[in-house]
Amino acid sequence: MTTKKTIKSAFESMMFVWGEPLDVKTAADVFDISWKEAYDCFLELKQEYEQEGRGIRIIEINKTFQFITNGDNAPYIERLCTPVKEKKLSQSALEVLAIIAYKQPITKGEIDSIRGIKCDRVIEGLLKKELIQEKGRSNGIGRPILYGTTDAFLGHFGFENIRDLPDIENIESAVTAEDPEDEVYAQQIKLDF
């Protein structure tokens, strides 16, 4: 014999996976119980959720039951679901990305040498953002990894192919200097190359 506790537990699971209002008759048929018995289980379950002040509530719609979120939590849900502002690349990430874009395929050691500082974490971050990728191995000592840009890089910066990169000599005019950060970026690229 199935206990009421088991039936209510199963109804919770069924509502969770059903995704739309669960009809009392459908739930009753699963357990081969009367419609009234299933309906009473749903009502008890609904009352338990309300009494405990849970973040999930159960509503009744024309003899069907469905999970909904607690309306008091709407501001938190809204904050959670609001698209996160896209983070800009750091100055160091832009420098490394520019070096890779213009010198690819290039090893980490060569990038470190151009920047004069280790770039392990920056390269790792650019790999995670899928702006760069491994392009094979160099024939040099230790066969270091070669890095190059990705199609995501081209799409992100509006290039059709890598040949669309501005000439290094003309880089300053390619970057609008209205934003002070852009001006620094243009100067930095000019200094690096």
Automatic annotation (TrEMBL):
GO terms for biological process: cell division; chromosome separation; DNA replication. It comes from the Bacteria. It is found in: Cytoplasm. Pfam families: SMC_ScpB. Keywords: Cell cycle, Cell division, Chromosome partition, Cytoplasm. Participates in chromosomal partition during cell division. May act via the formation of a condensin-like complex containing Smc and ScpA that pull DNA away from mid-cell into both cell halves. Belongs to the ScpB family. HAMAP family: ScpB. Homodimer. Homodimerization may be required to stabilize the binding of ScpA to the Smc head domains. Component of a cohesin-like complex composed of ScpA, ScpB and the Smc homodimer, in which ScpA and ScpB bind to the head domain of Smc. The presence of the three proteins is required for the association of the complex with DNA. This is Segregation and condensation protein B. It comes from Aminipila butyrica. The lineage of its organism: Bacteria, Bacillati, Bacillota, Clostridia, Peptostreptococcales. The gene is scpB.
